[in-house]
Amino acid sequence: MIQNYLINNAQRYASKWLVLAIDLMVVAASFLLSYFIRFNLTFNFEVNKLLVQLPVVLGIALVSFLIIGSYKGVVRHTGVRDVYNIFNAICLSSILAIFMIITNRQFELVDNFTIPLSIIIIHSLISFVALTASRYIFKSIYSSLSSEFKASKKVLIYGAGESGILTYDAITNHTKSNTKVIGYVDRDPKKIGKQINGVTVYAPEVLTESFILKKDVSEVVFCIQQIEPNKLKELVEGLVDFPVLVKKVPPVEDWINGELNASQIKQVQIEDLLNRPPIDIINSKISQEVNDKVVLVSGGAGSIGSEIVRQLCKYNYKALIIVDQAESALYDLQQELKQNGHVNFTPIVADIRDKNRMNNIFQEYKPNLVFHAAAYKHVPLMEYNSYEAIKINVAGTKAIVDLSIAHKVDKFVFVSTDKAVNPTNVMGATKRIAEMYISCMQQERKTKFITTRFGNVLGSNGSVIPLFKKQIEKGGPLTVTHKDITRYFMTIPEASQLVLEAGAMGKGGEIFIFDMGKSVKIFDLAKNMIKLSGLRYPEDIDIKVTGLRPGEKLYEELLANGENTMPTYHKKIMIGKVRDLDYNFVRTKIDELCVNNMFFNGDTVKLMKEIVPEYISNNSDLCKHDKATDVKEPSKSNLKVLHS
């Protein structure tokens, strides 16, 4: 260990002394050059005197460098501070030389030893320029050689504007970077063919497979600020078939302390390519609705519930009660909120099925507004666990609804799903039954009940995109249940914003439906995810079609047969005009369902099909409960309603 320590230190100090030696050589050359300049580039000076003066000048320079420490900087990281140190050393050297010359003239300490002051000035200027230039020359040579010999990635930057230049700086100045920027791509004809930072600007037309392979490009970084989703989708889809990773620079407002860091340049996600413009909802009504109110969120640690909580934290509520039975997830949310400076909330571990426990919570906190997001949501699991699905999604919702009426809650907002429309599985049927019970209780006019209905949420627990990411990490294959299966998608913040807005605009009894744009083909989504990962389909990762799971259908719907919509003040949010219900019959049957489920009496699935006549099982053992005349193919007729 001692030997290694000595070797490492010897190497460290040797490099420092080498820099000092080179600096002295530069000073010597500068001194010779200053004489030539002083005497009009001729030898009309006494060389013998110069040879006597040179060691003195070098001695003075050595003392100055040792005092200032200008030789200690790491040459390959030369910066403004190093140039400042060189300037100080040269100034000190000049002052010492001038002082020595004037002193010698005054006291005649050394005979015939003098240096013209003009040479001292010229020498100082030449030395400063030469020492600074040498630093940057060595730095450039080192960078060039290191980028050539490292296993470097070659990157194209899409966008030669200010953001593109800052992206170049962030990539090349990153200390651990093994990346080389080989060009910019820009549509501005004034920039095409020119160079920025010594890097050529190309036209977008050069982005062909032959160009990518010829230049050995491994990454394309999009750094166009405020680019429209449709435009980004168009540009990225033009590259996904090439063997490159596609990345993008975050918006300026997300940069750390106003500066872009290389670690912030992230890979383009599939969420960026779903061709859906972000929803922009005016939140003034939400602020008024929750102002000085006690708000309770059930399922508050789940995907939707936790985002509802995060967005509620922006407003001036009186108290926020977060209820969830998942202890770990609730703890994580608690810590997150505390770290973000939110303290006015109460996390409660409780099960919504425990009516006595929930009654105590309602009695203690007296909520004015309830957001009910607690539910079981996984279709294949619930298909053969109908007891739990009914207990949570029906009986649990029923308990919270009844307590809301009993404790005079102003508004109750229910988070439903598009799977409740013409359900083909237990989970969807339980959510539809919950919707129906809420419609029944709205007739009492004591609490305003509002339902929101939307499709799949990007990034939520168990959704398809996180599943595909895990499968890609393991090397595949990606599993798709059917080549033609499609789904609607929205982001978690958008879904939560919709729920909050529904709570604000709802007058009671509405089912709010969100215009989710076009449905997405899951097979195409899987192929794009493979390509965005820099891999090839099917050479690197294949897609395996596994067949529809129990209860799964090809096409999700936002409206049932016979339903239509009415507009609201927001073009993306509509009110579903649902069919009338026989409220007494529905309430009686739902009560019967909950009791039978509690005591394991009778066939609860058959009873669910009585309550929801359109519930027709698909690809499931539960199909035996359907009538032979029932049509199991899901209707597409209502898919066009929201776009008409």
From TrEMBL:
Pfam families assigned: CoA_binding_3, Polysacc_synt_2
Alphabetical UniProt keywords: Membrane, Transmembrane, Transmembrane helix
Signal sequence segment: none
Gene3D superfamilies: NAD(P)-binding Rossmann-like Domain (3.40.50.720)
Family annotation (SUPFAM superfamilies): NAD(P)-binding Rossmann-fold domains (SSF51735)
CDD domains: UDP_invert_4-6DH_SDR_e
Classification via InterPro entries: NAD(P)-bd_dom_sf (IPR036291), Polysac_CapD-like (IPR003869), Polysaccharide_Synthase-Rel (IPR051203)
Membrane-spanning residues: 17-38, 50-71, 83-103, 115-138
Domain Polysaccharide biosynthesis protein CapD-like per the UniProt entry, residue ranges: 295-576
Keyword flag Transmembrane: yes
UniProt similarity note: Belongs to the polysaccharide synthase family.
UniProt-recorded name of the protein: Polysaccharide biosynthesis protein
Lineage: Bacteria, Pseudomonadati, Bacteroidota, Flavobacteriia, Flavobacteriales
